[in-house]
Design a protein that fits this description.
about 20% helix; disulfide bond; alpha+beta; single chain; about 200 residues; disordered N terminus; two-stranded antiparallel ribbon
Amino acid sequence: MQLYIYYYMLLSGLSHMNGVCDTGKRTSVIESHMYSRTVQTAAHELAHNLGADHDGEGDAKACRPEDGFIMTPHGQLYDEFTPYSRNPWIFSRCSVESFKKKLRTKSCVKIAGAVFNILEWSKFLQKQAGDVFTPDKQCRLAYGPNSQFVGTPTEDICHILKCTKPATGQRRRKFIFAARGTMCGENKWCIEGRCIPKS
């Protein structure tokens, strides 16, 4: 089954609404052809499973979808003129309130004896995606084997990483978010679309 239709980001994932404690419904599925949106899409579907509505709908009517938080009902398109916003990496206040309200009533997330092993988890945090995938590799993952990064690894790549996308004899520019941990200067890396010092 294909979940993702190009330029129709709404269909890139499926999840049961509020199904986190139901054995048959606590799974979310995503299909990602847009490497740079994988984390946001997974977070979006998991949020549905935890009971969050789309911004502007249901319990989240007070939050505007056009503000571009994780729970926007449609994908946001960015270009080099789009002003920076942290919103694509965070949940709106409506989503946060929904999590607080709904998780208070879910006994399955409060299981005594459930243990989070920080040592086991920490091995996955030793490298960021940007440590593993160069800007060129990120472009190829998003747009195919002939795509490549355009520019230099400076601070502006964090918000908008520019890629070429070969198309019938012409080269078009496409834009993606740089992966977390992409180098953006000496001893700096991209976190949530911003270039910050490594510490």
